[in-house]
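Researcher: Please predict.
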Amino acid sequence: MVNIAGKVVLVTGASSGIGEAIARKFAEVGARVILAARRADRLNNLALELGGDCHVLELNVRDREAVNEALDSLPKGWHEVDILVNNAGLSRGLDKLHEGSFEGWEDMIDTNVKGLLWVSRAVLPGMVKRGRGHVINIGSIAGHEVYPAGNVYCATKHAVDALTKGMRLDLVETPVRVSTVDPGLVETEFSEVRFYGNSDRAKTVYQGYKPLEGRDIAEAVVWLAAQPEHVTIAQMTVLPTAQASATVLHKKL
């Protein structure tokens, strides 16, 4: 197994949910974690709580120039990223395509697809040059199955799946590994963001069964990163036991 202690790990969307859990788990095993997200106050609080070797990076992945500037300006000892976790992502609305919000579509495409591209493009050249590295993209079961009214969100996660496979093809002549972890239903701020702050509606998504927690995905990500360097776990789908597919969920009413 690879010793993750001391490795520099960049986690986007680290201020809450899955990203925060991933950052916590990597810090727990001794990694040096770059906490990247827009909400610097949350990142600072997390860094204080972790009390380890963390670097806070206020970052909006949708802004390509800001991404390049932020990663170019990482201090000495932090700029050689060993593991990149492209976690930043969101969903907006649950509407039929002909009733969808243009602004919501742009939020999803700019974050889930372009944001992943901007960060990967900034980090990957260094990995290739150094001859080591691992990119772990956080996808979704929505990247494999389309569900009603999920149209654009599902499309962005299908894009994450395609980009992950494309990266792996492009990097096959290098030692850099590329993986994706694709969760099912995880109880985070995801649904509250999707429903524009409607917490009552968001809560109904997770009622009647035991959903995944952010730490479940974090455990999977860190295990995957710790595999021997000659081993690539290309794709991992993680579901709550009550979920069989994107549209089949057993709820006890």
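Model: DSSP finds eight helices and seven strands in the chain.
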